[in-house]
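User: Mind token order:
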Amino acid sequence: MEQKYDYTTKQLLYDQAIEQNKEKIYRVIMGSDTIESKLQTPPVYIGGKTRMQSAMGKGFRFPLKGDNAGMSGKVKVSFIIEKNGKTINHKIVAGIGNDFDEEALRMVKQIPDNWTPGILNGEPVNVEYTLTIDFRNFSN
């Protein structure tokens, strides 16, 4: 089981990713300050990784035109998960250029805002989160 969420009480009962990310250090945004810290609970996408990947993949377009032919690689996109579970400030932090960066940004922006926020010292906090989009050209 990847995740268990009670939609009636709006409580996350179990998430596999929480166990896997207990020791991870996150960038926590506190007004104009940013600190790096472990969290009591990391931000979690309600529906789990599978549902998030499904949302990102809708309308996926592998860039194949012009200079993109035969290319592949990884693009990292970061964004802030706010205290209310909404996302803002999507940006490319490591790209491969051409149309790949644009497509990765589009994919991440279309993820619905279904996040539980990160928790630090018992309070929800704004957390920077990064996803890696791996473009592989399987036609070669």
The longest helix spans residues 98-109. The chain has a mean pLDDT of 83. The chain has one domain: 3-135.
